[in-house]
Design a protein that fits this description.
The protein is mainly α. The protein contains twelve helices and two strands. It has a two-stranded antiparallel sheet with strand order 1-2.
Length: 265
């Protein structure tokens, strides 16, 4: 089938050396690297909803990649609700409400650049709805295995600190253990999304500077309340944890914005 002509608003990707290296990053499947590059650009606002992406021929020639790799990358983006491809009209970026923003991969794309405040607010509002209630349930329903999982995760956070990948993995494990302890299958399905939101925001907060404070004691208070089977205290401690994490993230956004302004002066 002939490639559709570029439509008004069509967004072409620059054939720069950096772009080529990104698309052909060694050790990664090529279509995955292309999906990563396009997904990050969409989440960064470089391609707005309604924009038509470059066709496979133009893209393949610009970045010196195969048309098949491009098609597979578009399939990845379509599966995550970011784009839709149709004959004759090409591949268009879908409206934001169609994006699967809770997909851990999509969150990774969002935080690979400068995440927008709307997304950050949405993630923390979700956490504020889900996690305090989950902590309350966990305090009521946890068993010895749950307590051990939380304790091990907390120990890992203290040992490695959240400045390391091992520490952030332990942080994810802590939040996952709480959701598991609710014995609520619907809540447990959110574990990967909540964990990704926690990990990416924690990593983002340290891009320009060290964490402004140690958040491990906030987690310890949640743990202590769950161990004590105190639902009210567990819910309150988790709510405070989320609020403080949002404040830290907002500060990081301000630091990023100041750095960006300084770079353009």
């Amino acid at each position: 089938m002939a490639e559709p002509p570029a439509a008004a608003g069509s967004q072409a990707l620059p054939a720069t050396p950096n772009a080529r290296r990104s698309a052909r990053e060694p050790g990664r499947r090529l279509h995955g690297a292309i999906a990563n590059m396009l997904g990050s650009a969409i989440l960064a606002g470089e391609h707005a909803p309604g924009d038509t992406l470059s066709g496979e021929v133009a893209f393949s020639e610009a970045l010196d990649v195969s048309r098949n790799a491009y098609r597979e990358a578009i399939q990845v983006l379509a599966a995550k609700g970011l784009v839709e491809s149709r004959p004759k009209t090409g591949t268009k970026v879908l409206p934001r409400h169609r994006w699967n923003l809770l997909d851990p991969v999509v969150l990774g794309w969002a935080f690979s650049g400068q995440p927008d405040l709307r997304l950050i607010r949405s993630l923390f509002e979700l956490r504020a709805v889900i996690e305090p209630a989950a902590a309350r349930m966990a305090a009521e329903r946890r068993d010895k295995a749950d307590i051990k999982a939380m304790k091990d995760a907390l120990t890992g956070m203290r040992r490695h600190t959240l400045a390391t990948e091992a520490g952030r993995a332990a942080d994810r494990d802590f939040h996952d253990a709480i959701l598991q302890a609710t014995r609520n299958d619907a809540l447990v399905t959110l574990s990967a999304s909540i964990g990704a939101a926690v990990a990416w925001t924690t990593q983002f907060k340290q891009r320009r500077r060290a964490l402004p404070r140690n958040p491990v004691p906030d987690h310890a208070r949640v743990y202590d309340a769950i161990v004590a089977q105190d639902p009210d205290a567990a819910e309150t401690a988790m709510r405070e944890l989320v609020v403080l994490a949002l404040e830290d993230t907002q500060q990081a956004v301000e630091v990023e914005a100041a750095a960006a302004r300084a770079g353009t002066d």
